[in-house]
Amino acid sequence: MRNIKFGTDGWRGVMAKDFTFENVKFVVQAIASFLQDHPLKENGIIIGYDNRFLSEHFAQEAVKVLAGNGIKSLLVNRATPTPVTAFAITSHNAAGAVMITASHNPPEYNGIKFIPDYAGPALPDITDEIEKELNHTLATGRVNEMTIKAAQEQGFYKEFDPMPEYKKHIKQLINLDAISKANLKIVVDPMFGAGIDYLDQIFEEAGCRVLTINNYRDPLFGGSMPEPSAKVLTKLKSRVLAEGADLGLALDGDADRFGIIDSNGEYINANRVLYMLYYHLLDVRKCRGPVARSVATTHMLDRMAEKYGYQAEETPVGFKYIGEAMRIRGSVLGGEESGGLSIHGHIPEKDGILAALLMAEIRAIHGKTLMGIIKQIMDEYGYITNERLDVCVDEQEKERIIKELKEFKPSSFNGQEVVRLNQMDGTKIVMADGSWTLIRPSGTEPLFRIYVEANSDEQLKEIQKAVLETFGM
Questions:
Q1: According to the model, what pLDDT value does residue 7 have?
Q2: 78-106 core/surface letters (b: 16 or more CB in 10 A; e: else)
Q3: How far apart are CA 311 and CA 292, in angstroms?
Q4: pTM higher than 0.85, yes or no?
Q5: What are the Alpha-D-phosphohexomutase C-terminal domain coordinates in residue numbering (predicted)?
Q6: If residue 453 lies in a helix (H) or strand (E), which one and from where to where?
Q7: Is residue 8 very low, low, confident or very high in pLDDT (cuts 50, 70, 90)?
Q8: Less Cβ crowding at N or C end of the chain, within 10 Å?
Q9: 340-343 vs 385-392, strand pairing mode
Q10: DSSP string of 156-200?
Q11: What stretches of 70-123 show up as alpha helix (H) in DSSP?
């Protein structure tokens, strides 16, 4: 039997090996079966797709299967970012969305996300139900289908342009007047992905000077991964420096994650972006409310929340948990160190377009470089630095270390009293001086991810060394 599992953000697989037209039909059939009793079923499902090889054809297969199950499809008319597809759910009061994307994974991958009616990532109770339906579908081998022509004739399929509604909404969340007055020079890099034409159009309409690179479809993503990391964004860095730009703004393959380059060419990691944004929301916009962050994300957010009488909510890794905190408990900002965020008033789905626009707003209003704003924050809240290490081990060693981590209950670590031990998602050790480390095993690879946050660069290296020595990595 095929092994199709929904991970932290949907199902992904290598095209032609796992991600095939047949398997896509099985997954969409399972989604259709799950939706049969949904109160919004008659309103239909949004179908989006990214710029990967064959994505638009996989989307057409989804249309056929949904129509065969009596469910109407509203198919985007071009490659579309995941957050734009998710927002379309709210515009059309749809029962959810099917998004064909493998986000920032290598070019040979594709995937399917199911986004529920609340326009955020599906929680485990939903994906578990879809997997149950999938197991039944795989066991019977039955998939209901209808031709595209028949689906059109019977009113089960139509195309639409999701961009205008999304742009209208997103402009209401951003201070475009401030951005316009600042006359910023910006280099935009959609990384050959679904975010093409979004940032550059919005900035140009605001009167910014915009240079766009990598703004055409390339399913091979220029021979790299569509991941907006410091390692990958070398071309963007070079163009920012060559053009004397104020900012470089990148989007990943489906535009739900962001990459930020300051005017000096320095890559600004997601932890810094998040605490700059929370600082801006609290201090400039005068927003009031808690923040939600993953267990692996900076505690600078906690320091800020505490000053204003709030508490940071810590969630397992995965934006679905952050989105839930925003929906249910009213966080004004939700984010994770891997590059996803959203704010109150927007959908509970990570949105790289929103993040990039907010960084431009911050740059415009504060009148400083991003590094200048970071220095200002550290002068007020204290110095903080963080880093993630990925350590490869063999499978036998991985099992040994996982067992040791479960039994690890130290009273002190790296010369500091341990004030909190958290095993919500990996093993997190929080020390009395606010420094911490999180050790998480990968669910799919023989490696561990070691996150460290410290009060100095020297302390960060000491904690990393202590983790490696303690567990023999």
A1: 66
A2: bbbbbbbbbbbbbbbebbbbbbbbbbbbe
A3: 9
A4: yes
A5: 411-469
A6: strand 447-454
A7: low
A8: N
A9: unpaired
A10: SEEEE--HHHHHHHHHHTS-HHHHHHHT-EEEEE-TTSTTTTTHH
A11: 82-92
